[in-house]
Write a structure and sequence with these properties.
It is a single chain. This protein is of the alpha+beta class. The protein is built from three helices and six strands; from the N terminus they run E-H-H-E-E-E-E-H-E. The chain has a single domain, classed as Dimeric alpha+beta barrel (Alpha-Beta Plaits), CATH 3.30.70. It is flat and about 45 Å long. The model has no long low-confidence stretch (mean pLDDT 92).
């Protein structure tokens, strides 16, 4: 099964961490992707730029409306993701526990739906 591990954390708290700590967390994440790749479980992963760089697109009455950044009442933002293969939710959850972002925020584990007719990657 395919799972998306969605990493959430407080961007402001992350920005206040030392550069060395942030660099170490990224290196640890990269190491995890290599481990997953070696196990045949890695599909994709990437951190995201801060939410201040995002825009929101909504289509209403056929017209797109674009607004700056996500305006949600939350302290945590989506920081990145891992797209993995795992045999079941328990295995995916065990992998999520290895994501460095889980130590400073949370990792949401969600199964990805298979949809027929999508282009092959």
């Amino acid at each position: 099964m395919t799972f998306m591990l969605i990493v959430h954390h407080d961007e402001n708290a992350f920005a206040r961490m030392s550069e060395a700590t942030r660099r170490d967390m990224l290196a640890e994440s990269v190491q995890l992707t290599h481990q997953l790749h070696a196990n045949g479980q890695y599909l994709s992963a990437s951190p995201l730029h801060p939410s201040t760089t995002a825009v929101i697109v909504r289509v209403r009455d056929g017209k797109p409306m674009v607004t700056d950044g996500p305006f949600v009442e939350t302290r945590e933002q989506i920081a990145g993701y891992f797209l993995i293969q795992a045999s079941d939710i328990e295995e995916a959850t065990a992998i999520a526990a290895q994501v460095p972002g889980a130590r400073i925020g949370s990792v949401e584990v969600r199964p990805v739906r298979d949809v027929e007719g999508l282009p092959a990657v």
